[in-house]
Amino acid sequence: MSTVIEFVVALVAIILGAAFFTNAIEILGGRLGLRQGAVGSLLAAVGTALPESMIAVVAILEPVLSGEVSEEGALIGIGAILGAPFMLATLAMFVVGVSALLFRRRRDQGTRLRVDTATVGRDVGFFLVFFAVAAGVGLVELPMYLKVVVALVLAFGYGLYVRRTLFSGEHLEEVPKRLLFLPRAQHSPLLAVVFQTLASLGVIVAGAHFFVDAVEHAAEGLGLPAGLIALILAPLATELPEKFNSVFWMRDGKDTLALGNVTGAMIFQSTVPVAFGVLFTPWNLAPLDLFAVVLALASGGLVYLTLRLSGKLRARGLMLGGLFYAAFVVGAVIAVL
């Protein structure tokens, strides 16, 4: 019973946090004069991806700073780093597609996604390059100086992406006029906007951690292997924020923000955390890690080709990401059991 309560509290916290976060981040982007690409792919994406990325970075750096060699910490860090972009490129795409399908009656565009193809296409293209580099480095033994070069390339690559994204996309449409935190205020001060943004992000992070705890407790009660939890259920919990943010934006027909929130997080997760992993771990990818990378690249590649060939995205096309995720679940279960 206590585990069920944990699940309910965690989900309520994440959903409410996502609702308040999307409301505040749009208003903040409007106040700063940012476009859709910057708000969705940078502010929202990095804001929700940074906390879970720090978990992986801390798992890697803690033994390095303490002087203790921890193979377990390295494995946890590598799994978390690779698991995040994999989940986003597969399951998150599926959730975006399902959201378009479920809300089709209240969306002017129906099941078709009305996105800025240049912005989203660039996001997915950058991701395919960066994540392929991450996989390639994990297949061969590199001397430290080459690892430093790879890390710098990834860091500068993300910097280049940020520079291009800041001024990309159309202007924000139908920006909320009032904060959910101050529903009666006609014009909320900037400090209040920043406060709601940070506070809601904190609620999202807390909800995600509660969800992970609930998953672990449920697994213990059911007698499931810890490895299965680490590979499948825990990453699912930590990626919930991006998914719920996108669901709210899909409901409102703001498809560039919804999809950019996912694709922007994919790029961040495949560059900055990977740079730390390459530098401070052996970065030798296990077969299951490589399987996840291949599936993520295949799912992302399908979205990229669809955009380049037709310039359109539809709900059913994005829902194919669920098949890639299901394939990984089957492979993970076989590998663990």
Automatic annotation (TrEMBL):
Question: Looking at the keywords, is Membrane present?
Answer: yes
Subcellular location, in the record's words? Membrane
Q: Does the keyword Transmembrane apply?
A: yes
State the GO CC annotations: plasma membrane
Look up and give the membrane topology term.
Answer: Multi-pass membrane protein
Provide the Sodium/calcium exchanger membrane region domain boundaries.
6-162, 196-333
GO biological process entries: intracellular calcium ion homeostasis
Pfam families assigned to the protein according to its UniProt record, in alphabetical order: Na_Ca_ex
One annotated GO molecular function is: calcium, potassium:sodium antiporter activity
**Domain of life of the native organism:** Bacteria
Which terms are listed as keywords in the entry?
Membrane, Transmembrane, Transmembrane helix
Q: Which residues cross the membrane?
A: 6-25, 37-61, 73-103, 124-142, 188-212, 218-237, 258-280, 286-305, 317-336
Please give the name of this protein.
Sodium/calcium exchanger membrane region
Q: What organism does the UniProt record list as the source?
A: uncultured Rubrobacteraceae bacterium
